[in-house]
Amino acid sequence: MKKILITGGAGFIGSHVVRLFVNKYPDYQIYNLDKLTYAGNLENLSDVDKMPNYHFVKGDIVDAAFINQLFEKERFDGVIHLAAESHVDRSITNPMEFIFTNVVGTVNLLNAAKAIWKDNYEGKRFYHISTDEVYGALGDTGSFKETTPYSPHSPYSAAKASSDHFVRAYHDTYGLPTVISNCSNNYGPNQFPEKLIPLFINNIKHNKSLPVYGKGINVRDWLYVVDHARAIDLIFHKGKTGETYNIGGNNEWRNIDLIKKLIEIMDRKLGRPEGTSLELITYVTDRAGHDLRYAIDASKLRAELGWEPTIRFDEGFEKTVEWYLANEAWLNNVTSGSYQDYYRKMYGE
Length: 349
Ligand code: NAD
Ligand code: DAU
Prior knowledge:
By secondary structure, the chain is an alpha/beta fold.
């Protein structure tokens, strides 16, 4: 019987990880710790929240006393840490929140794990879920390897880079059994519509303009979220202690090409004549510090643990659009209230 703490399990990627673990490991007790910020939504877990091996704890990883008490009480065997402030644009307007949650919150969890495991690390693991953005930006060629030097450009990626450094420092200094993975852009169901794909799906649906930053030539490497969750499962169980693994989709798209592909699918699904929504494309001022290109070399993960993405992009993209169209209530719920203020401040309409 293992007790696993998953932080940020009510968010986008976290909810897919919780679902996978609760279903796949009935002999594990899965604890989902989440503050339920604007990005956390327990509706994301409505299909698993009655399972006997699932437990929800509402709490803030920045609150060290609370975290210490929780670890003392539950004595987790493993931690899969996803809780974070995750949106680059929000980090530009409010960096402190990112330093508190992403840096201080991560160090609080490291301290609490270290305190309960007390040098007896047999069967224990602290797994930090991180991002490819820590490596900075690529030019037209090349890809990020695990050995690529860190060069973050946004407050978000600087905070994630800092938390990665603390995780490695706790491994090197105290011998804490850590592992880190750095993944490229995820897409799929349950992503908060501040991120490119769900934001644009929602806007196309409501005939609202599509704010393309700069010239739309930035490149991202897209991975279906369920494939990320599968990689997390594999690395948590079989990754080598102290190591870092890159995870990516081997699937690079220029933003503008991805947006045109999305418009093609959406117009078809909404029964609009082909190309109707192209007129919604609006070029706006570029994101400050906007990284030109990300691309992941995931060959280490493939060679050592045999992981490959299983969902082809065509299939995953179509399924994603279908999910948002079928889950109108979810979309309406998360875009009501404070989302409207965010949207007005961010996009001025
Ligand atoms: P998300 O914003 O959808 O979810 C974050 C979750 O963390 C939410 O449920 C939120 O309530 C919770 N949370 C935030 N602050 C908290 C706090 N102080 N205490 C407890 N819970 C808190 O994020 P996501 O896109 O699912 O990303 C999850 C993780 O994966 C993050 O660490 C992110 O850096 C990393 N990541 C994301 C992507 C991506 O494309 N989305 C890619 C690579 C890595
Ligand atoms: O690479 C992994 C990262 O991917 C994760 O660590 C982050 O948590 C996640 O948010 C994501 O970061 P990006 O900044 O790449 O994702 P976002 O969806 O915000 O933007 C994708 C691209 O689209 C980026 O080049 C900016 C552009 N964009 C985004 C928005 C929201 C626009 O052109 N217009 C927009 O309105």
